[in-house]
Amino acid sequence: xxxxxxxxxxxxxxxxxxxxxxxxxxxxxxxxxxxxxxxxxxxxxxxxxxxxxxxxxxxxxxxxxxxx
Length: 68
Description:
Strand content: 5-15%
Oligomer: single chain
Structural class: alpha+beta
Number of strands: 3
Radius of gyration: 13 Å
Organism: Actinoplanes lutulentus
Protein name: AlpA family transcriptional regulator
Distance between the termini: 46 Å
Largest sheet: 3 strands, antiparallel
Number of domains: 1
Shape: globular
Mean pLDDT: 90
Strand order of the largest sheet: 1-3-2
């Protein structure tokens, strides 16, 4: 909590789950891109991102067509 505000955070595992179970390697590829939000913390266990920024990034991405 910072100045009375709580922040929801996401790590690589949560991002992978949110993106329909993509691999950890693919998560790292995506999070390394210039258009992905910057992490707010880098811990020994990995980086953390604000969930609201990750959700906004996901919403702004075009969805690939579904295979038929």
